Amino acid sequence: MKDLPVSLAAGLPLGEAVYRALLQGIRAGGWASGERLREEEVAAHLKVSRTPVREAFGRLLAKGLVQQARGRGLVVRSLDTAEVFELYAMREILEGAAARLAAQQASPAEVEALKDQSDRFEAAKDAADLARLNRIFHESLFQAARNRYLDRALQELQDGIGLLGITTFSVPGRPAPAAIEHREITAAVADRDPERAERAARAHIREALRARLRLLQG
Q1: Which member of 23, 75, 98, 151 has the greatest number of CB atoms within 10 A?
Q2: Cα 69 to chain centroid, rounded
């Protein structure tokens, strides 16, 4: 727990801040599927009482991100193979739409940010760094789409992605093609080509699914 990138956001009610911190931790892969969440450990780490932690746990349970463990407590939920296919099917649709909209809506500064993030991703070597930079790239693409309803749906998908565990960038040979895919999405957005941007984003998610299935198959 001490090494998790989990901290409280300022200016929020305590229960909401704890919930967001735990959600951030799950999205960042801070807990593996099946790992137990303990009220006392989370409370001690965040330096809060167990009451807001218990409230946050209830919200995570309602969202289906955790489940009751045998005995007492909660564990991070695992996705079965059918759920993985469903998750990536929706990712392909929604992230394709985000890229299409970004090609229409992105400001010059947002395009430059995508280019910079593509460069940083390509230069990274560590799988954890690649996963973190990948999240930043996709978040920037979502923001550039400027559609709050689409963004809300995409944020829900990020919760499911957090349950998948080990990053696909640990699959040998995956990082280099992913960097090329990021560059193709970015180039299409920069060229204001919505159809090409959507095709590139959808192809990117299909390749991510192939890597995920390799992990699942061992």
Answers
A1: 98
A2: 24
**Helical H runs in 67-165?**
81-105, 108-123, 127-145, 148-162
The CA–CA distances, whole Å, from 183 to 41, 166, 187 equal 41, 24, 6
d(CA 214, CA 147): 33
| C-alpha to C-alpha distances, 152 to 64, 78, 142, 147, nearest whole angstrom | 17, 22, 10, 9
Question: What domains does the chain contain, in order, with CATH numbers?
Answer: 14-76 (1.10.10.10), 81-217 (1.20.120.530)
The 10s digit of each residue's pLDDT in 40-79 is 888 988 889 999 999 999 999 998 889 888 767 788 888 8
Helix, strand, coil percentages in the chain from 3-state DSSP, rounded to 5: 70, 5, 25
The pLDDT, as a whole number, for residue 1 is: 45
Q: How many residues does the chain have?
A: 218
The Cα–Cα gap between 98 and 189 comes to 10
At a CB cut-off of 8 Å and minimum separation 6, what does 10 contact? none
Give me the amino acid identity at 148.
R
More confident position, 12 or 54: 54
Strand, helix or coil at 204? helix
110, amino acid identity: E
- pLDDT, tens digit (0-9, with 9 covering 90-100), for 203-212: 999 999 999 9
pLDDT at 17 over 80: yes
Is 99 in contact with 201 (CB distance < 8 Å)?
Answer: yes
The answer to whether the Cα torsion of 159, 162, 164, 168 is positive or negative is: positive
Q: What is the pLDDT of residue 7?
A: 64
